[in-house]
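Tokens help. One example:
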Amino acid sequence: MPRVRRVLVWIWLAAAWQGAAVAAFPSAYAPIVVQPVPTNQAPQGQEFDLTPALKQARQQHKRLYVYLGASDCAYCRRYETFLQKHAAELVAPFAKDYLVVDLRSQLSFDAPRLFIKVNGRSLPYADFQRSIGDERARLLVYPSVWLFDADAKPLMQMPAGAGTFETVPEQLEILRLEQ
């Protein structure tokens, strides 16, 4: 392989690796990463178990800030970039009251195949949404955020998708549970 071509391949691989590395809630917020595990409840179904994070929240007397992002979601990258850019202003307010939970998904995980497990009960996405009284029950939108107390009770109705929390004051209002 010619030298120039090898260099271009290395540059491309480095860029791809770096892009993959930022496809998540920024590490400055110390997120609890929850990878999906296969479930036999649906063909190619994936389940996210919130139970360990809830246990930790009870022990630390904190709430959960649950973030459902997709590795191939441009709007998720936009929100994650915002969080990274404003980490100096936002990390402390997050850490004061919340444990951040980063659910690592993909756009190909459609609602019927995405399951959320809380305290031993696993529900398909739409049923989970209905069980917590979320008005977005019929749609799977990336990114999505839920705020829960340590018993998995929702603390407020959250917006989702593009344009979510794009300023520091808006993000702080959410953390303070201001409607």
In short: The beta strands are 32-34, 37-39, 45-49, 63-70, 98-105, 114-118, 121-124, 144-148. The chain is about 35% helix and 25% strand. Residues 65 and 156 are 11 Å apart (CA to CA). The longest strand covers residues 63-70.
